[in-house]
Amino acid sequence: MNVGIIGAGTMGIGIAQVAATNGCKVWVYDANSKQVETATLGLEKTLTKLVDKQKISAEKMTEILANVSIAIDLKDFKDCELVIEAIIENKEIKTKVFVELENHVSENCIIGSNTSSISITSLGAELKYPERFIGIHFFNPAPLMPLVEIIPSLLTEKSLAEKMYRLMKDWGKVPVIAKDIPGFIVNRIARPFYGEGLRIVEENMATPEQVDDAMRTLGNFKMGPFELMDLIGVDVNFSVTTTVYKDYFNDPKYKPSLLQQRMSEAKLHGRKTGKGFFDYSEGAQKPIAQKDDALYEQIFLRIISMLINEAVEAKRLGVANDEDIELAMQKGVNYPKGLLSWGREIGYTKISETLQNLYNEYQEERYRQSPLLNKLA
């Protein structure tokens, strides 16, 4: 297959690597030509490390690099059967690119967007052939993270989602099919992991290191919400939350955090800027959490209850089937268990009681329960 990639950032070149590794001829385009050169040099370094670690052979590295070409212009995508966009999360900029792209590709070329939260229907609505447009959302880093969310729009041709599902399987990925709703599966369900952690810190109930430690020790999460936000980028995480909140017509469940906004404004974006919720400068010591068993139990139960409630609501709304909801959270954000089965393990009655207590305390719609939760309890 001939594949075009628009955007030579981390995601774009990562997707290019995945496609090229699976025998596709790949053309990578970026409006900034220097970025493409930098990205391809970076790919060569990445593959060299994989050879050194004996993850791939030198022959395979040569084959992958031979499969990747630099596109000077969108016209270079004229023979592509699939083009995936992976540029800035801005609807107007993406739409402009797609409209221009249609002038250069065949009517049969599938156009996909790697957007993490923008409506696929709205992105494809301006196209001459919106039926060939679909969401293909990889997770960062694309070569390592197995999950790919396939999101058909209201206008997407019916069989296209299944076709992309099979292609991603062939590329060695774990695909799931999701409805075109804000945040799709993962970024919708995962919002409370960050949002409730931020709320707990804003209330002076615990420190970021205590929240992280509670989720690691009691929930067996690989990373707590604050170290994960620092890894993702505090600004990126804030942007996704803001998008989901606005797209749900300001539903209080997804309300962004003032603390996170201030962090973004201060350019305390996490690892990429050297400082976020924690300091990553050379020689800096990460603060040690002051352990408190009762507090940790409270933190864990509060956050996990919010997460499970979101998963149950996604099930009720048919965002995806049960298996895909469970797979998405485990393969997309490395959750130790599927949230629906975790709810059964803890007991849906206990989850319901926790949320009701929070609602009674705060009197906020943020803590409203999915109508399905009580039925499961």
Explained architecture:
With 377 residues, the protein is α/β, with parallel strands linked by helices. It has helices at residues 10-21, 33-52, 58-66, 91-101, 120-124, 160-170, 186-189, 191-202, 208-219, 225-232, 234-247, 258-265, 293-316, 322-332, 339-346, 348-362, 371-376, and strands at 2-6, 25-29, 68-70, 82-85, 110-113, 133-138, 147-152, 174-177. Helix 5 (120-124) links the parallel strand 5 and strand 6.
List key phrases describing it.
single chain, 377 residues, alpha/beta, 17 helices, 50% helix
Q: What topology, given as strand order, has the largest sheet?
A: 3-2-1-4-5-6-7-8
Cα-based radius of gyration, to the nearest Å: 21 Å
Biggest sheet descriptor: 8 strands, mixed
Order of helices and strands: EHEHHEEHEHEEHEHHHHHHHHHHH
Please state the overall shape, judged from the principal axes of the Cα atoms.
globular
Number of helices: 17
Terminal CA distance reads: 48 Å
Structural class: alpha/beta
The count of strands amounts to 8
Helix content: 40-55%
Strand content: 5-15%
